[in-house]
Amino acid sequence: MTVKIAVAGASGYAGGELLRLLLTHPEVEIGALTAASSAGTLLGTHQPHLAPLAGRVLAETTAETLAGHDVVFLALPHGHSAEVAAQLGPDVLVVDLAADHRLANPADWQRWYGGEHAGQWPYGLPELPGAREKLVGTKRVAVPGCFPTGGSLALAPALAAGLVEPDVTVVAVTGTSGAGKSLKPNLLGSEVMGSASAYGVAGKHRHTPEFAQNLSGAAGKPVTVSFTPVLAPMPRGILTTATAPLIGDVDENTVREVYEKAYDAEPFVQLLPAGMWPATASTLGSNNVQLQVGVDADAGRLVVICSIDNLTKGTAGGAVQSMNLALGFPEATGLSTVGVAP
Ligand SMILES: NC(=O)C1=CN([C@@H]2O[C@H](COP(=O)(O)OP(=O)(O)OC[C@H]3O[C@@H](n4cnc5c(N)ncnc54)[C@H](OP(=O)(O)O)[C@@H]3O)[C@@H](O)[C@H]2O)C=CC1
Ligand SMILES: CC(=O)N[C@@H](CCC(=O)OP(=O)(O)O)C(=O)O
């Protein structure tokens, strides 16, 4: 069964990555491609790496241009997708890459994003406890933020097994494409090249409530999250270091057993052999998540390192994986664990 898909936000980074993946998806026909100020221009001028689609003209993002598709991907800025989604019929599968439908608590939405809460949708991170079942057959998907993808997968098994206190620290080094194509002085090459800088420090980043929601769900009790993102001079990739105080005398073998049990059957989560540490270069362009666990016995802490590509597993790959589940295709269709290296 071939499905016809549309991508709103096709000129952006997330839209471009979606199209890169969907071009090789065997069950997909690519329909409307839309944007805002770029409407009327050729996709090839924005996404020169997508050669087969170079001649496509971007349409305006309206309910009319998005009508007549089986699946609509919304790769729009936060706060815009809910409005567009509300105009699409209940039979269309809508996969939202923005934050509009991720959070359960309206007060969290108001505090971290502002405006009216549009309601929560099934969350597009099937590897979290209980998430996959909600994605099967759904017509609405909220794709996770890139940081909560890596950090939640890094800590959920330990919290679910009661190995650590519900008080975690996450530091994540990210490439610049996480910020989208926006023209901001701190994203200029001359600012980013040769420098790494923290931002959203001390509980200021809007992914904090998304982490807390995911990890509290895994733990079955409230989890406190201290999250620090760090911008690094690389175009894509996220390397997450997640730590938490161990409960009692837990050794590394016990931790490995818990993570092996959680992820052995997962097609896109790879616990590396002991002694190997994840690096962003190994997951570039792939939907793979590489993890390694360690026990810092002197500090009494669990340390988990996780590598993902923010544009693939961190957004567009997660979106395609969720679409596959929603439509009943094999979950890994059109996705790969193979990276681009060096
Ligand atoms: N980049 C990443 O790593 C990740 C991104 N996401 C989410 O994906 C979404 C897209 O992000 P990203 O691709 O990085 O951002 P970009 O800034 O690169 O792209 C934004 C896209 O949205 C279009 N757009 C902007 N404003 C409007 C509007 N009012 N109506 C319709 N279209 C509009 C732009 O079109 P035009 O060219 O005309 O301006 C462009 O196609 C965001 O919600 C982001 O948070 C989620 C996880 C990771
Ligand atoms: C480098 C950079 O700026 N990264 C972005 C991450 C964006 C993301 O993951 O997605 P959502 O905006 O969809 O939540 C940030 O920190 O805001």
UniProtKB/TrEMBL annotation:
SMART domains: Semialdhyde_dh
Semialdehyde dehydrogenase NAD-binding domain boundaries: 4-136
Superkingdom of the source species: Bacteria
Similarity-based family: Belongs to the NAGSA dehydrogenase family. Type 1 subfamily.
Record key words, sorted: Amino-acid biosynthesis, Arginine biosynthesis, Cytoplasm, NADP, Oxidoreductase
Entry EC no(s): 1.2.1.38
InterPro entries: AGPR (IPR050085), AGPR_AS (IPR023013), AGPR_dimerisation_dom (IPR058924), AGPR_type-1 (IPR000706), NAD(P)-bd_dom_sf (IPR036291), Semialdehyde_DH_NAD-bd (IPR000534)
Subcellular location, principal: cytoplasm
Pathway(s) where this gene product acts: Amino-acid biosynthesis; L-arginine biosynthesis; N(2)-acetyl-L-ornithine from L-glutamate: step 3/4
Native species: Amycolatopsis carbonis
One Pfam family cited in the UniProt record for this chain: Semialdhyde_dhC_1
Residues annotated as the enzyme's active site: C146
Class of enzymatic activity (EC top level): oxidoreductase
Task performed by this protein: Catalyzes the NADPH-dependent reduction of N-acetyl-5-glutamyl phosphate to yield N-acetyl-L-glutamate 5-semialdehyde.
UniProt record, GO biological process: L-arginine biosynthetic process
GO cellular component: cytoplasm
Gene Ontology terms for molecular function: N-acetyl-gamma-glutamyl-phosphate reductase activity; NAD binding; NADP+ binding
PANTHER family per record: N-ACETYL-GAMMA-GLUTAMYL-PHOSPHATE REDUCTASE, CHLOROPLASTIC-RELATED, N-ACETYL-GAMMA-GLUTAMYL-PHOSPHATE REDUCTASE, CHLOROPLASTIC-RELATED-RELATED
Location within or outside the cell: Cytoplasm
The reaction(s) this protein catalyses: N-acetyl-L-glutamate 5-semialdehyde + phosphate + NADP(+) = N-acetyl-L-glutamyl 5-phosphate + NADPH + H(+)
Protein name (Swiss-Prot/TrEMBL): N-acetyl-gamma-glutamyl-phosphate reductase
